[in-house]
Amino acid sequence: MKNSKFVFDKIAKLFEQGIISSRDLTNEFITILKSKRDEIVFKMKLTSKDEFDVLSKRVENLEKKIEKIKIQKKKKTKQVKKS
User: Fold this and answer.
1) How far apart are the first and last CA of the chain?
2) How far is the C-alpha of 82 from the C-alpha of 63, rounded, in Å?
């Protein structure tokens, strides 16, 4: 219950600040969830802080590569001509 209250408080704060664009809201919501995920993993002490930072960078790089591949795939499918 405490965690859900935290998320609801963050969302309420966003509405108070006037963020009404769905894209802005989505990005902010993802950022909140990532920070909570990082906090939970750090509290569980699965890895040291240094290892956690390195693994976080790796995950970010992989996410960027996935996005680039998705964009390239979309461009290739759009270039095909219909006969």
Assistant:
1) 58
2) 33
| Residue carrying the six token digits 């600040």 | 17
Q: CB of 29 within 8 A of CB of 11?
A: yes
Confidence (pLDDT) at 69: 92
Contacts of 65 (CB under 8 A, 6+ apart): none
Largest CA distance in the chain: 59
pTM above 0.70, yes or no: no
Residue located via tokens 């802005």: 24
Cβ proximity of 14 and 28 under 8 Å: yes
